[in-house]
Amino acid sequence: QRQMWIRDRMKRWQNVLARFIAAVIIFLGLLMFAPAEYMFMVYCLPWFLLVSFGCYSLFTIGINLATLRDCPEAYAELMKQIHEIKEGKQYNQQSTTLIT
What we know:
Low-confidence stretches: none
């Protein structure tokens, strides 16, 4: 099981590395062969890709948080913890001291 996970992980890293190398080659080709009118866009391309990756990452995290109910064990555990915390605060609100 573990050996298979490492093998899959290596394949993923090889895929990422190959795509990165291809992107660098394309960018260097654009730097060398792009007309002067388009050089500003070529210079902004890495920043655009960085911001796009950040937006994609935030979107992915948001979707995964929004679909937490898809994992019933994690959802049940989280709801149990929230319920325990709420009961603890209600108990402390009824007494003279409030512990938060």
